[in-house]
Each structure stands twice: as structure tokens, then as C-alpha cells.
Amino acid sequence: MRRREFISLVGAAAAAPLAAARAQQPTVPVVGFLSQESAAAATDYIRAFQKGLAESGYVEGRDVKVEYRWADGHYDRLPELSADLVSRNVSAIAVAFAVAAVALKSATTTIPVCFVSGIDPVRLGLVQSLNHPGGNATGLFQLTVAIGAKRLGLLHDLLPQVATIGLLVNPTSPYVAEQLSADIDEGARTLGERALVFRASTDDDIVKAFAEMTEQKAGALIVAPDAFFHARAGQIIALATKHGIPAIFDRPDQAVAGGLMSYGADIAEVFRQQGGYIGRILKGEKPADLPIIQPTKFQFVINLRTAKALGITIPSGLMSIADEVIE
User: Fold this and answer.
1) What is the pLDDT of residues 23-53, one digit of tens each?
2) How many domains is the chain built from?
3) What is this structure's pTM?
4) In sequence order, what are the residues at sequence separation of 6 or more whose Cβ sits closer than 8 angstroms to the Cβ of residue 288?
5) Residue 131: exposed, middle, or buried by beta-carbon count in 10 A (0-12, 13-18, 19+)?
6) Is residue 104 in some structural domain?
């Protein structure tokens, strides 16, 4: 046997076990994550999502790879981002929030999906029912919009003398009508208050909206849950303080950042549960068989520093029901 042929045979023999070993290594699943928000606004809930994945046996970077896609509050980007994730043949897709979930629904009816939605997913056509989702999607219904009347009630308890309350909404949201629902209008009438709607979809709009609130003597403000507003919480909080308008938000981090109050579902727990559902799907469970999870815990946060800056004394009754008080 020639020396060159011998070396080739030895090399082939050595390579065979390595190739077999590679073939036996398990393929790490790839999960898509689609959000209508920005990465900066999602830091806390992404950490919670990763925790839920890890608790189900999938540590990101080791047992699973996650492909993140962010619309940065630009809802028109969602169809393209959805199509991109679907084209990558991912094993499952996690979605935040309702607008993104609807966009993804138009892109796939086969890839398993787990969404977080603040709007009724049955009404949106995402699932057949809360107990038996059917199809390729399941998720969590965090009741974000439905508890708008509760935020209104908390403002009334804080400032019962206020006659006019503003509602800041993003007119580019497909679900702005949900935020202007009978819960708010009817609630304001019941409490003997007038509700004024202010619309903003750009930074300049937000500045103009606060100027209008001052002109129309809005005594308090509800900031509607919206990806655009979440990304601009700092601007909104600064303007509310500058104009002396007490405001309530939907997320605890907004109160921590200087908003007067916040009330909403425990978002960290919601996304931890979403991560757990994705883990169960990766293990073979079907979304159709996983019932929609609804929150059992809501967080009410009060920022006393902001209250002091606004010259407001928080009633003892509100203090006693707060989950967190920032001093």
C-alpha cells in the first residue's frame, strides 16, 4: 500500500467517530420572541421569561436559543417581523402583546405560539375559548385594558375633588377603542367626573397633549397601556411632574421611575409563566390543550416622593392596600 493511500485511510477512520458523535448530539431548539415594544422597555419581563424557561429545563444559550424581534412601538413593522420568524422554522414563538399576537396569527397557523395579551384573546380570534384554546396558540390574558376602571377608581380615591380626568391614548393602536371603552366612560359618569381623551403617537404629540391637559384643567391622568408609551415613560413622567398632573400607569417600573401610581398584573409573574408554557410546548405538549392563564395577583405601587413633589397626601386607606410604597 502506498504511503499516501495509508494516510488517507487512517484520516478517514479517525474522522468517522467524530462525525458520528456530532450526529448524536441533540439539536438545540430555537424559539422566536416577538414584541411590539422595544428591548429597553422589556428588560424586566425578558428576565422573567428566561427564568420561566429555565425552571422548565431550558436555559437560554445552553438548552435553547431565542431569536428576539422588536417592533419598538411601530405596529406596522409587526407583519414583516412575524414573517421573518416563521421563515426561520423556529420550534415555538413567544409573543408580547395583543397587536403582535394578531400579526403573528396572520403569519402562521402551524408553529406553536404562546402569547401575552391585555385584550380578550377570544374576542381577538387568537383562541376558541379560554379553557380549550384549540389551534396552534395559547397564552396569558393579563386583563390590562379591562382593569382601566380600577385605575380610574384609585385616582378617584386619591383625589375625590377632581372633576376632570384625562386619558392618554395612542391613536395608531388598533385597539384604542378598547381603551376608550364603557368601563372608563361609564366609570367616570358613575363617579361624577368628566373624562377627556388626549391622543399622542409622537414625542411632540405627548408635549402637546400635556399642554392641552393644562388648558382644559385635567386634574389627573390615566396613561393607557401601550408600547409607545412604555418606551417613553421617562418623558411622560417628567411632563406630568412639570405640569403638576397626578398620573397612574399600568406597570410597576413606571411608578419606580417617578410616576405617582401604577396598577396592573404582576408582569414578572406573567412572563415567568409564559416561559414555563414555552418549555412545556418544547417538551411536546400542544397549545390547544393548555388553557389560557389569567392573573390572580395585581400590583398597586405608590411613589411617595412624587406625591410630595406634587403636594399630595396619600390617604391611609390607599397606603394600606399598596403592594409597594416608594419613599
Assistant:
1) 445 689 999 999 999 999 899 999 999 999 9
2) 2
3) 0.85
4) 132, 133, 134, 135, 136, 138
5) exposed
6) yes
